[in-house]
Amino acid sequence: MDIFPAMETVAQIFRSLEDETRLRIMALLLEQEELCVCDVMAVLQMPQSTVSRQLSLLKKAGWLKDRRVGVWIHYSVSRTLSPMHQYLLPVLRNFLAVTDAARLDRERLAERRKSCCP
Amino acid sequence: MDIFPAMETVAQIFRSLEDETRLRIMALLLEQEELCVCDVMAVLQMPQSTVSRQLSLLKKAGWLKDRRVGVWIHYSVSRTLSPMHQYLLPVLRNFLAVTDAARLDRERLAERRKSCCP
DNA sequence: TGACTATATCCAAAATTATGGATATATTCC
DNA sequence: GGAATATATCCATAATTTTGGATATAGTCA
User: Fold this and answer.
1) pLDDT of B83 over the 90 cut
2) Residue A118 domain-assigned (yes or no)
3) For labelling, which of A39, A79, A84, B13 has a CA lying 20 to 30 Å from the CA of A118?
């Protein structure tokens, strides 16, 4: 695998960010070190298959990694991002967190943290 | 229109870069100040309707502007890019030009310049 | 005015992607 | 081992996007 991705690879990385659900997940994981699938389900208020699929797409796209913790799978932003992913990260940091959607999701996550799971 | 785009707007900007044809056009216009539709057709070797549509999508997405010069429409990178577009520009500059597809397109453009239009 | 060229838009078909319920897999706890 | 829970994957359907030929529009030149 080359340092410089092919044009098609560049397109795929952008494509991984075209979906609002995936962007909401990225916004969450840029603030919260780790989240399990059920956390994300609760915050996004979407069915399990949808959330699980989008998480695995983001992993496949090189953004996330996962690790099993007992019965849960914890997702977090990969620590071995490609150069292009690293270039894009500040864009996400600057423009996702300030959206209304991200703010509402943060509130729902805080609410959930109060009532469950230490 | 706010300085900070909504999540859906962020998604749309990424979506505008998900297509390989559009990325090839952006790569060309980051090196070449202005191109008319027929230049792009010749370089990409794609039908007129396809090229014209993608150019107008890139314009609609905030990347390009156009101006009429006689019977031609010249497209170029907008000089009033939004903050998010400006953040993304270096990503395009760094990762598009080095692809094989972009190199071949540059060669075809140079070839065309030799044989036609001063 | 009329022929010609460049470009935009329309349209129906093809291709791609997203959706969520159903099912399969894996882990824990009793 | 069996029940219960979390997650991944399958599948058929729905929604979205792309495609390119056909047509419309607009400018040029004689």
Assistant:
1) yes
2) no
3) A79
Residue A31 structural domain: 7-113
> What's the length of chain A?
118
Whether any strand C atom is under 7 angstroms from the Cβ of A111: the reply reads no
The answer to whether ipTM exceeds 0.90 is yes
The reply to whether B106 falls in a domain is yes
Top-confidence residue, B28 or A1: B28
Q: How much of chain A is helix, strand and coil, in % rounded to 5?
A: 60, 10, 30
In our burial notation (b when 16+ CB lie closer than 10 A, e otherwise), range A14-44 reads bbbbbbbbbbbbbbbbeebeebbbbbbbbbb
Contact A100 B5 (CB under 8 A): no
| Residue linked to tokens 């690879």 | A9
- Rounded CA gap, A89 and A81, in Å? 9
Whichever domain contains A86, its CATH number is: 1.10.10.10
Which among B11, B83, B102 is the nearest to A7, CB-wise? B102
Q: Let me know if residue B75 belongs to a domain.
A: yes
- Best probe of the B interface among A3, A8, A10, by most B CBs < 10 A, is A10
Q: If interface means Cβ-Cβ distance under 8 Å, which residues of chain B face chain A? A: 4-8, 10-11, 14-15, 17-20, 23-24, 27, 83-84, 87-88, 90-91, 94-96, 98-102
Q: In B, which residues are within 8 Å of A98 by CB distance?
A: 4
Number of domains in chain B: 1
Element (H, E) at B19: none
